[in-house]
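User: Sequence in, structure out. Go.
Assistant: Echoing your sequence, followed by the structure tokens.
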Amino acid sequence: MTALLDRPRAATGRPRPRGDGRAAVALLAPAVVLLVAFTYLPAGLSLVASLFDVPLTGRQDWEFVGPDNYLSAVRDPEVHRATLNTLLYCALTIVPSLVIGLGLALLTAGLTRGRSWMSAILFLPFTANLVAMAVVFSWIFAYRGGFANQVLSLVGVGPINFLGDGVTALPTVALVGLWRAASFCMILFLAGLTAIPGVVHEAAAVDGLRGLRKLRLVTLPLLRPTLVLAVVVSTLQAVQVFDTIRVMTDGGPLGASETLLTLTWRTGFEYFRLGPAAALSFLLLVVLLVLGWTRRAAVVRGGE
């Protein structure tokens, strides 16, 4: 009787089977092992490497340099340029994708037939392979024989070196990010619009609210948590842009499209300066953590 009373009980008061805890541990153990082995352990080694000078040739001993790698990264003109390019990329993709995504979501939500088909078609860009799409866009904006220049030639405009000009390279690459981010924002806003009760729309119609006035006074306030989520997730994705730049411009010409992530990769795997690359990656990680915490706090405030 005493053993029965001492046995852990579920919320219903019934005895909890002894195998539940062991089964949970057995199911979680592979995921935990993989997470530690491929995420936390490499991150810890990278943090250690950021405090050392890590040579890959010649002498093999690590020289402790403390915060020097971080200080050199902060003072490096290439880091400053890459930071400005990253901010410009964010500006070219985040706000336009929110506007386009919201507009597409409103149009899709207003359909009486084919809404599921339309939402699936508009969501396809987000599910497409980004490297493959970067190759396609590289052909579209190619200087010789590219589709964009063939269209421009029809109206008498000469060929434009979209990916080889320092002025147009980053905005051209940003089009791929905008194309993908707008699809992601559309599905988020569509889910938010679907969650709005129908009685709200009926009350707005009774009060004579329609069009842009209804959007400003009713729809957008109710979409605030979704809007905050879309803003911060889009920002996180824009800051971490790598694939499209690597395929389309490789950071060129002359660093005109170099971003923080591509510069980190180049520093570590082309210049073989692992210490500064690790320090730069952790500086970027701090920025992402701040953005993630901002998202959490903003969503909580929006829910209130």
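User: And one key feature?
Assistant: DSSP finds 14 helices and two strands in the chain.
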